[in-house]
Amino acid sequence: MNSLIRYTARCMRSGAAYSLPGHAEGRVWTASSRLLCTAAGLHKDLDGVVKKDKVVVFMKGTPAQPMCGFSNAVVQILRMHGVDDYAAYNVLADEDLREGVKAFSNWPTIPQVYFNGEFVGGCDILLQMHQNGDLVEELKKLGIQSALLDAEKDSK
Amino acid sequence: MAVTSDHIRDKLLKELTAEHVDVEDTSPNRCAASFKVLVVSSQFEGKPLLQRHRMVNSCLAEELKDIHAFEQKTLTPEQWKKQKQN
After folding, report:
1. Strand (E) positions, A38-135?
2. 8 A C-beta contact, residue A135 and residue A129
3. Residue A111 contacts B, CB cutoff 8 Å
4. Searching chain B, which residue's CA lies closest to the CA of residue A121?
5. Out of B49, B64, B70, closest to residue A125 by CB
6. CA A135 to CA A144: how far, in whole Å?
7. Ranges of H-type helices in B16-64
8. In angstroms, what separates the C-alpha of B40 from chain A's closest C-alpha?
9. For residue A142, which of A82, B26, B31, B71 sits 20 to 30 Å off, Cα-Cα?
10. B24 touches A at CB < 8 Å
11. pTM score, whole prediction
12. Closest among B41, B56, B54 to B11, alpha carbons compared
């Protein structure tokens, strides 16, 4: 929450408008403009952004309201594993972010998923990891117990 | 020049010495150029998913600039054989 307030303060100083939308789950950060953020500045920001939270998702829309099938798939997969507390950034609200994150990750499409500051992949990769059991393992490395493991335990 | 399925298929076959490539134009389902590809190549052996996808992305770097949505499945010849058996 502090970072949200810090970001708001920064934007207000630079004269940019900023609105905090309501959100059902996950922490959402949207910016309506980033007038004084240069490409290099954004790169540095993104580096901090992806390392700040265990699970970071750049998506179209928000976890409560995804605006794209692939972004929705990522949200649903994470939800299935009980991962609801993650940082989600809506690239549709910020064109600079949309292009900047593609350059930063060297990845051409959205959504983009980061675990512990490391790029994991897009929807395809997350789906395959979910199907082959790798996602449960990766979440365990993050110290997150997948809800699917609990479900398995309950059914035994 | 619009990106076509054939163009993508040819490039992947050549640059990744792919054994098999399927390219599906999923644009009609979406509002802009979208493709779904399956690439089977021995070059993927021993490489994690992310690396494989990055190989495909590099191969199609130019085309991806004009593509809006892109799905990909990358398999080694062995994985593909197993998949076909199921």
Report:
1. 55-59, 87-90, 112-115, 118-121
2. yes
3. no
4. B50
5. B49
6. 11
7. 49-59, 61-64
8. 16
9. B71
10. no
11. 0.80
12. B56
